Amino acid sequence: MRLTALLVGTTTLAWSAFAQAAQDSAPLGCAEVLELMRAKAEQNYAGFLLEVKPAPARAAAYASALGGFRARSRAARGDDACYAVLRDYIAWFDDPHLFVYQSGRLDSAETARRARAARTVAMDESTARAYFRRNAARLDPIEGIWYDRGLRVAIVPDPAAAAAAATTAAGASNRFVAVVLASDTALWRPGAVRARFTRRRDGGYDGEMWLRNFARRLVDARLYKRVLLRTSPGVWGKEYPVAARDSGLLDPADPRRPTLLLRGRTVIVSMTSHDPGYKPVLDSLLAAHEAELRGAERLIVDLRGNEGGSSLASSGLMPYIASARMRPERRRFRDAMLMSSEDQMRYARVAFGRDTEPEVQRLLERMRAHVGGLVPLFDSLVPERPPAHDSVVLGPRRVGVLIDRGTVSASEVLVLDAKRSERATVFGEPTAGALDYQSTNIVSLSPRERRWYLGYPTITAGADLPSNGMRGRGIPPDVRLDLARLRDPIAVVDSLLRRDAR
After folding, report:
1. Do residues 135 and 155 touch, judged by C-beta distance below 8 A?
2. Which of these, 258, 229, 242, lies nearest to 151 by C-alpha position?
3. Are 299 and 321 in contact (CB under 8 A)?
4. Is this model's pTM higher than 0.85 or not?
5. What per-residue confidence (pLDDT) applies to 116?
6. Which among 83, 138, 307, 465 has the fewest CB atoms less than 10 Å away?
């Protein structure tokens, strides 16, 4: 009898453990995920500490918005609906360095299943080009042939959406598909739909993209300088159709690589990325064209749509931008702060060297003593080095830097350096304004949550923010240009520089 009872009990305990394990592995509900993301953002994002928590009006607005997000999270059904809630919650802070990171992990069986189920459209290179030629006068800006390091796609109206629109009073569809013409992996075959886009009223596009392993990612897609489609973190370059005035602004194989053009006595350097991996490419271009740069009357640095990366990527340009006398720096990096949290301490151990090094030890001691607050990134025991002065090259008499709202992060450092130079003028629209909080880290929300992560900025420009900050405003140009109305912004900048040099 006792043995029977023991066996029954053992079975009950085993089933209970199995049920608990199943519960632990089950996806979290959207309301739970939102609370985890809220907690991580409030613990790690210095913008919450400096700009929301101490400001009654801002704190009240945050509490009101959070109530709305919580209501939406309780009603959300499915991953797409939940992602929209998380995305909108993070977007409330209006900081380009604060984002929802979507996992791209899939096992091989799921990748194979999705590959078999991928939607296809009957289209090849010749039919795509014929369509673009036939409809040249009425193409949407996103339509065309796009590329990225081996991948080539044709973005055309979604045939299914177009057929539906033709039978209703809605008119032309605002939905598009990216059809593979040449693949960057054997898993993707020509004719497969690699992405879908829906045009919004603001000119951007809600995107649904599939990675090389068929992992699905929802993106905010935006066009810059008519030939660059940025989906953060993805970048596609436009191959066809491209107007002559826009040609040469992108490398024909890799849209992130910088290019250098010569137009008479004007040198044009186009940079779409500050990824440090492209620094040798830029340095090689500058070395190969040193004679032209030294003899040029004007230099135009086109930073429209630059995705950021490392400010060191463009250091080779500074001798051609700097003047003999430089205006004062807007803010010293020496004043940078770190918000203290467990995630931030783990970040510091990785980002700043081994925690056995004296400087890192002192930093971690400061962080442990001020959890939930800000601590100086540097301390008084580390002597301040004098600022490095770039040697000035007697080259272009006038320098123009062209910017827009897609000029973000590390590229904004170059903009600030240009504004300090007496021979440089910044043209265009305000930048994204992403330098108050910078250098991102991505953290898990919970061991049970593997779909979404929080990306947040780790370094704070100064403890006085939002005073003297740029978030939400960006860096203003010296000369404002309405880029959407200009057929050739580079020609306009060149003309203005010629006039200013007289």
Report:
1. no
2. 229
3. yes
4. yes
5. 95
6. 138
- Asked if residue 328 has a cis previous peptide bond (ω within 30° of 0), the answer is no
Annotated domain spans of the chain: 28-101, 108-240, 244-329+387-435+470-500
CA 496 to CA 400: how far, in whole Å? 9
The amino acid at residue 364 is L
Cβ atoms 405, 432 nearer than 8 A = yes
List of residues 6+ apart from 299 with CB closer than 8 A: 266, 267, 268, 269, 293, 320, 321, 395, 396, 398, 399, 400
The CA–CA distances, whole Å, from 313 to 87, 235, 271, 279, 359 equal 30, 18, 10, 5, 26
DSSP secondary structure, 249-298, as one string: SS-SS-TTS-EEEEETTEEEEE-S-B-GGGHHHHHHHHHHTHHHHHH-SE
d(CA 180, CA 250) in angstroms, rounded, equals 21
Residue 307: strand, helix, or coil: coil
pLDDT higher than threshold 80 for residue 346 = yes
Residue length, the chain? 502
Amino acid, res. 268? I
pLDDT interval class at 494 (50, 70, 90): very high
Q: For residue 241, give both structure tokens.
A: 């159709």
Distance CA 73, CA 87 (A): 11
DSSP state at residue 323:
-
Q: What is the DSSP string of 412-430?
A: HHHHHHHHHBTTEEEEES-
Quick one: what percent of the chain has pLDDT higher than 70?
90
Q: Report the SS3 class of residue 78.
A: coil
Q: Which of 25-34, 142-151, 326-335 has the lowest mean pLDDT?
A: 326-335
Task: State the pLDDT confidence band at 392, using cuts at 50, 70 and 90.
Answer: confident
User: What contacts 236, CB < 8 A, 6 or more positions away?
Assistant: 146, 147, 148, 153, 228, 229, 255
